[in-house]
Amino acid sequence: MPRTSRAVKLAALPDGLPGPEHFSVVDVPVPVPADGEVLVRNRYFQVFPSLRTLIGGGVKGTPFPPLRPGDTLFGAAVGEVVAAPGVAGLRPGDLVRHWLGWREHAVMPAGQCAPLDGTLPDPAAHLGQAGVAYTALARDARVRPGDTVFVSGGGGGVGSLAGQIARLLGADRVVGSTGSPDKAARLVSELGYDAAVVRGGRPIAEQLAEAAPGGIDVLVDNVGGEQLQAAITAARPGARFVLVGTLAGQLAPDRSGTTAPVEIDTFQLIAKRIEMRGFGGLDDAGPRPEWTERVGAWLRSGDLTFPHVRVAGIEHAPRALQELIGGRHLGAVIVEL
Amino acid sequence: MPRTSRAVKLAALPDGLPGPEHFSVVDVPVPVPADGEVLVRNRYFQVFPSLRTLIGGGVKGTPFPPLRPGDTLFGAAVGEVVAAPGVAGLRPGDLVRHWLGWREHAVMPAGQCAPLDGTLPDPAAHLGQAGVAYTALARDARVRPGDTVFVSGGGGGVGSLAGQIARLLGADRVVGSTGSPDKAARLVSELGYDAAVVRGGRPIAEQLAEAAPGGIDVLVDNVGGEQLQAAITAARPGARFVLVGTLAGQLAPDRSGTTAPVEIDTFQLIAKRIEMRGFGGLDDAGPRPEWTERVGAWLRSGDLTFPHVRVAGIEHAPRALQELIGGRHLGAVIVEL
């Protein structure tokens, strides 16, 4: 086993969008697990846009502290157990998922990682965006046959799966939003959306009224801002909204706060009895969580594809984040070590 | 039976706050019920602040059309059946509740009125604000023992009951907001609030942080605007918000749109898994709805008081609305005919 390992740290706070120059890939000693801890060699980790919010200072009053220069980045990861002294049920070689990505080796208390159960055909699918998409739709938004579903950020890591899963759960019409006409075309041709709206052109509310003329029953919101406003305008009575991400701020080149403040008219929420909730987290306590069962079956049958881009080598992770924020990719962005 | 009856119509659109000069009390023929319709002589109706929103032009995209000059106002009412030709189960003298207040006589299809079942000791309590308060807390916000509850507009028709009902459902600490230090004192001394915050003084978020230092689990929002923002800041993870009213706009002297737009940071909703929903309406289909059973028992035992002001005579209804919007009263404002 090597004595040193690599990790990505925040080197400097960006003024606008973060680029590779704001990160450093540093050599660190391989951590030594204490009794009850697990040492993992990471195989995959996920690059996710909320990092920009945390780099930009976080959001006061939330449980997530901001990232400061010198901090190691983090995110969903899948790795192989190297050692787990005094931990029952984990052996070297077992695959686990956890939250300490952006480093080649990670050490954590046994309770902070979970063994992969083999329900998903691709270990990288355990990074969780499929679980977020499934759980947001099935549990939080309670998609029902016949629903019209709008997925903002429809080509992102969560959105590229949510559009497909909405249909598999019985939605009648699925509309996505994305950042360019090219990607809008791919949403329809590759990801099964019935229609796509494009930000930066005509008002989203106007485009959405055409794409979903009968209104929407469900929103999976990865964006916030104007897209959330448009969804409120398009909502049918009793619509269920689940808020997952705030790309509106995270993708904006001109702001460093990077959240997605939005002006909402609460009279509309009342008059239409709209339900809007922050995504409630994965239900993955049980031995075989519902989402891995369902998503695993769909992936094996080919009903669901897992759109993602793999970037090889931890040294390319900062560029992967830059490309993700720049909207270069469709689907999840995964760094493979 | 008289041939003529009186009704209140909108006479002119106000520029700012509506006053008696914007309404006219007119003589109209007593309507004649067709087969399957019910003619009701109203005994009470409720004056509610959302009328200002409808007078101010309504809100686009909602099911409520604006009120225009010449339109008769409306609102929850309780009255006595005068005639119900061809309607099974309703006899002259029966009390019913319905939505055609602001007139001495009303006629409607039988399906649009519901008989009072005697579960509430005061027929005026059937006007529904107790039902809104109970249902918002028990069903929509799922108040649990130990919760800290914030009721914005804590002295209003719904709020004055919600504060008391939150406690009866097991809330540990109940904080209300209101428009003046005088009313704040009455919230604590008469309505059982543990503490009250006052709008128009120091920032609500600052006052709320002191009144609920551990944060809030539940919001019953009758106000919107700054108070909703403050509640988001004060929310504990998993907080449940139910949106009932938009007094922030309706009480404002300087606006005629009269809704309550508010800037929300959706990242906070996500990070804290906040659930926010427009009030879902009363469950009052069954023969004895849950809210009338529970509220009736509390009213009879004296655990709950029904704070309200009665104004006698339909000709005073416009002034009652003006006083309601001016924040003159604590509790519901009911016109008695």
TrEMBL record, chains A, B:
- Output the InterPro entries linked to this UniProt entry: ADH-like_C, ADH_N_2, ER, GroES-like_sf, MDR_fam, NAD(P)-bd_dom_sf
- The answer to whether keyword Phosphoprotein applies is no
Output the Gene Ontology terms for molecular function.
oxidoreductase activity, acting on the CH-CH group of donors, NAD or NADP as acceptor
PANTHER family with a match to the protein in the record? PROSTAGLANDIN REDUCTASE, PROSTAGLANDIN REDUCTASE 1
Q: Signal sequence span per UniProt?
A: none
Query: Per the database record, which ranges form the Enoyl reductase (ER) domain?
Result: 16-335
- What's the name of the protein? NADPH-dependent curcumin reductase CurA
Q: Which CDD domains match?
A: PGDH
State whether keyword NADP applies. Answer: no
Q: Organism, per UniProt? A: Actinomadura luteofluorescens
Q: Which UniProt keywords apply?
A: Oxidoreductase
